[in-house]
TrEMBL record:
Gene Ontology molecular-function annotations: heme binding; iron ion binding; monooxygenase activity; oxidoreductase activity, acting on paired donors, with incorporation or reduction of molecular oxygen
Pfam families: p450
Localisation per UniProt entry: Membrane
Annotated TM spans: 26-48
Organism: Trametes coccinea (strain BRFM310)
PROSITE patterns in alphabetical order: CYTOCHROME_P450 (PS00086)
Family designation: Belongs to the cytochrome P450 family.
Matches recorded under InterPro entries: CYP450_sterol_14alpha_dmase (IPR050529), Cyt_P450 (IPR001128), Cyt_P450_CS (IPR017972), Cyt_P450_E_grp-IV (IPR002403), Cyt_P450_sf (IPR036396)
Name under which the protein is recorded: Cytochrome P450
One cellular component (GO) term of this entry: membrane
Length: 544
């Protein structure tokens, strides 16, 4: 029996028996029949013989919406299920757009190592980022200009600066613990009582405080406690899948986002003017001062609005990524007292003083802490904050045959206009690559010959290439790519490692942590994967 006979006809018969004014009845019939008709058409369209050169399309009932609910609810489960059914290359409909997914290390390479003339990031990301970051930077400018802007930032993030940042981050964490109400038990100096804190709130606040103190500069840090906090929050609320997928809706959150961007941009530009007008009072050595001195290749200096927008972009790019990584790291540590103890012992071994205390740490010393390094790497393996990396295909592109399972010699053509998507998260959790892939086990990073070390070498060693912002590894074939690869590779990697490591060092030397309740599930509903709302218990260490 057809869908029409089982669903549509009984409905229309029932409705036609009701007494409606004729216009309303027609309207109601149309409202019910048009969607049903489009579902039927969509089903029939999927049953038609398909162009075999195109990747298989994931089955979906509702046109336009497509597989959005399954992908949005749990992209990992969705990708795994599709991989089982269709292999490493498949397409799905996401709110009217066709997205072609290429999984596995080769799939990552296809997307991340693609030529810019064929695969463009700006076409996909700009509707989300331009209203937040602002005009003429990142994805609102030609790719060559972005490469130059990345170079400007990279040269501002020197080892010298990192050395100075360690003390600043440590101070911020200390001040936070001494003032935030969630750490009242810590403030009471009682070593027997346990307190608890809200994980997402705490690490989001610590991240913005430490990033502003270091990267953003004195003026921004000082204004964080005042109206800037609300402006930041309004801007941040524009960083959601809805604002990305449906730009320009006439909703309050869109208006607040735009107003917040305008305010923030003019705030940064007023700082720039002040610094230029009073060079004697402003001897800051931060990213802003470095950007003020740099020039594009054609000799032009960076206009003030671009400096402002680059700084906003850095703030946003580093906020959710670092805060979610910190949150996951601390949750795993709270769940594994043995690793907490190993981290604490590592600190005693390196920084212990004769009177039983711990001295300050330096940037160069942090780099030598093997347990800490493994803890951060392992967290980024299981919880890279970005689960989907996307580009838009500007031409028809053949997908290398090795990706096409089950038949190895098959070549698919990704049609021009498709969005292509890689998910390094899937390779980072692949049980055929990683032993006990779903278990957080920092020890896997100690084995120099193990899979983790090999993946890391494939990520960072070998031939290098310069896309305009310094040398990065040429190869993008690795099952471990938490910071992406190729021309869009992250420039905040070293800073993020430093920030996350220093915060963890500061916390572990002061307190013990335990998990409250079940280990939280990932929340995929926001732009970055973060844990569902949860709490961690803490207690002051005996020898602080
Ligand atoms: C790019 C991850 C922290 C700035 C990326 C990409 C990834 C990533 C996966 C590639 C995106 C793509 O190819 O589409 C991370 C993670 C972080 C982190 C896991 C922390 C744990 C930061 C920080 C900053 C930053 C702290 C700024 C200081 C950037 C920038 C790009 C980028 C500017 C380049 C975008 C492009 O070229 O298209 N990051 N990031 N990130 N990240 Fe990060």
């Amino acid at each position: 029996m057809s869908v029409n006979a089982t669903i549509i006809e009984p409905w229309t018969a029932t409705l036609s028996q009701l007494e409606w004014p004729s216009n309303s009845r027609l309207l109601l019939l149309a409202l019910i029949n048009i969607p049903l008709f489009s579902i039927v058409l969509n089903v029939l369209w999927q049953l038609l013989p398909r162009d075999k050169s195109q990747p298989p399309l994931v089955w979906h009932w509702i046109p336009v919406l497509g597989s959005a609910p399954a992908y949005g609810r749990d992209p990992v489960a969705f990708f795994r299920e599709c991989r089982e059914k269709y292999g490493n290359v498949f397409s799905f409909i996401l709110l009217g757009r066709r997205v072609t997914v290429t999984l596995g290390p080769q799939g990552n390479d296809f997307v991340l190592g693609g030529k810019h003339t064929q695969l463009a990031a700006e076409d996909v990301y700009s509707p989300l980022t331009t209203p937040i970051f602002g005009k003429d930077v990142v994805y609102d400018c030609p790719n060559e200009k972005l490469m130059e802007q990345k170079r400007f930032v990279k040269v501002s993030l020197t080892i010298e600066k990192f050395r100075a940042y360690v003390g600043m981050i440590e101070d911020e964490v200390k001040d936070y613990l001494n003032s935030d109400p969630a750490f009242r038990v810590w403030q009471m100096n009682d070593i027997n009582e346990w307190g608890s804190f809200n994980v997402l709130k705490t690490f989001s606040e610590i991240t913005i405080l430490t990033a502003s103190r270091t990267l953003q500069g004195r003026e921004i840090r000082e204004s964080l406690t005042k109206d800037y906090a609300q402006v930041y929050s309004d801007l941040d609320h524009g960083f959601t899948p809805l604002h990305w997928m449906v730009p320009g809706l006439p909703l309050p959150s869109y208006r607040r986002r735009d107003a917040a961007h305008a305010k923030m941009s003019s705030f940064y530009q007023s700082i720039l003017r002040n610094r230029r007008e009073h060079p004697e009072q402003n001897q800051e050595d931060d990213v802003m001062s470095s950007l003020m001195k740099q020039r594009y290749r054609d000799g032009t200096s960076i206009p003030d609005h671009e400096i402002a927008h680059i700084l906003i972009a850095l703030l946003m790019a580093g906020q959710h990524t670092s805060s979610s990584s910190l949150a996951w790291t601390m949750l795993h540590l709270a769940d594994r007292p043995d690793i907490q103890e190993a981290l604490y012992k590592e600190q005693i071994q390196h920084f212990g003083t004769p009177d039983g205390g711990l001295r300050d740490v330096t940037y160069d010393e942090i780099r030598e802490l093997k347990v800490l390094d493994a803890v951060v790497r392992e967290t980024l393996r299981m919880h890279p904050p970005i689960h989907s990396i996307m580009r838009k295909a500007h031409t028809d592109i053949p997908v290398p045959a090795t990706l096409g399972t089950p038949s190895e010699d098959k070549v698919f053509v990704v049609p021009k206009g498709d969005i292509v998507l890689a998910s390094p998260l899937i390779s980072q959790l692949d049980p055929t690559v990683w032993e006990n892939s779903e278990t957080w086990e920092p020890a896997r990073w100690y084995d120099e010959k193990g899979v983790a070390a090999q993946a890391n070498r494939a990520y960072d060693e070998g031939q290098k290439v310069d896309f305009g912002f310094g040398l990065v590894s040429k190869g993008t074939i690795s099952p471990y790519l938490p910071f992406g690869a190729g021309r869009h590779r992250c420039i905040g990697e070293q800073f993020a490692y430093l920030q996350i490591s220093t915060v963890i060092l500061a916390l572990i030397r002061r307190m013990e942590f335990r998990l409250e309740g079940e280990f939280p599930q990932p929340d995929y509903s926001s732009m970055m994967v973060q844990p569902m709302p949860c709490k961690i218990h803490y207690r002051r260490r005996k020898f602080d």
